[in-house]
Design a protein that fits this description.
This protein is an alpha+beta fold. The protein is built from nine helices and nine strands. The protein folds into two domains: 85 residues, Phosphorylase Kinase, domain 1 (2-Layer Sandwich), CATH 3.30.200.20; 183 residues, Aminoglycoside phosphotransferase (APH), C-terminal lobe (Aminoglycoside 3'-phosphotransferase, Chain: A, domain 2).
Length: 287
């Protein structure tokens, strides 16, 4: 996968206290919240390509990710990253072997031919499989603003006060399970039509199953798929082959996510128009 040139100041990756990995060169700088480096180096006497992730903020959960990946390694599945080095003193960091594959956004392009439909059932099944896993001593998922219904002030700011009654309704008790926490297209790799990698387990833990589904299927800015009901239905069809879900709760969480995204995507007119149209359609179906 191609990554951009250095686009911001970062920790010096050559300064990290590696124990098992010898860094030789930096190949690219993926866009991420933490400092992430596509790198080449030596591991167990062989030249390997890897990703180095260094904490950029106190809220980074690299230690949690390393713990979860150590649990997943017991499955000996090629789709989960293999941790080959880490350290938590000073700047927490991890090193994982490179997984091959492309993001679905690169594969489907503008998605004019709805090519995305070929992938979405497996996409849904893979999340259901994750939700069925038992991770010993997994921590509760960290709280995030997206988990919470938008306040009246936020709705009013975006001219959506008419939706307030929707968010005042109590949801049923959450179905708890192991959740990825950030399962969306940018963290899923594909090769030859199948998932070849699931990345970024920093936010994983015991959480709300239906929110994890909603987070996977609501559309992000710039995303050229998950724009239609057919695509959502195909993802959910795949999920239902492996697990159950509450579609009413999933869509309520999708609505929350769209409203929160309106807050920081105001300069993207196309996305805001899409989000508002989706919210109006959702409201019309519920009210």
């Amino acid at each position: 996968m191609q990554h951009p040139e250095k686009w911001r100041e970062t920790v010096d990756p050559f300064s990290l206290p590696y124990k098992q990995f010898e860094l030789k060169s930096i190949l690219g700088y993926p866009h991420a919240g933490n400092d992430v480096f596509h790198a080449e180096g030596i591991y167990r006497g062989e030249t390997v390509r890897a990703y180095i992730k260094a904490a950029r903020q106190h809220s980074a959960s690299i230690e949690n990710e390393v713990f979860v990946l150590s649990q997943l390694s017991r499955l000996e599945s090629p789709i989960f990253p293999t941790v080959i080095d880490f350290g938590f003193d000073g700047v927490p960091f991890s090193v994982t072997l490179e997984l091959v594959g492309e993001r679905l956004s690169n594969i489907v392009g503008d998605n004019a031919d709805m090519r995305s439909m070929r992938f979405l059932a497996e996409y849904g099944r893979s999340l259901a499989e994750l939700h069925s896993m038992k991770i010993n001593e997994a921590k509760p998922a960290s709280d995030r603003r997206f988990f919470h219904a938008p306040r009246a002030e936020l709705l009013s700011k975006h001219g959506l006060s008419s939706l307030q009654t929707l968010f005042e309704k109590e949801l049923p008790n959450a179905t708890k399970c192991f959740c990825h926490g950030d399962f969306h297209y940018a963290n899923i790799l594909w090769q030859n039509g199948h998932i070849s990698g699931i990345l970024d387990f920093e936010l994983s833990g015991i959480g709300d199953r239906d929110f994890d589904i909603a987070w996977a299927i609501f559309r992000r800015p710039g995303q050229r798929f998950m724009k239609t009901e057919d695509e959502i239905s195909e993802f959910l069809r795949g999920y239902s082959e492996m697990g159950k879900y509450d579609e009413h709760v999933v869509r309520r969480y999708m609505a929350q996510c769209y409203i929160h995204f309106l807050e920081f995507c105001a300069d993207d007119e196309e996305y805001c128009a899409f989000a508002r149209a989706w919210l109006n359609s959702y409201a019309a179906a519920i009210l």
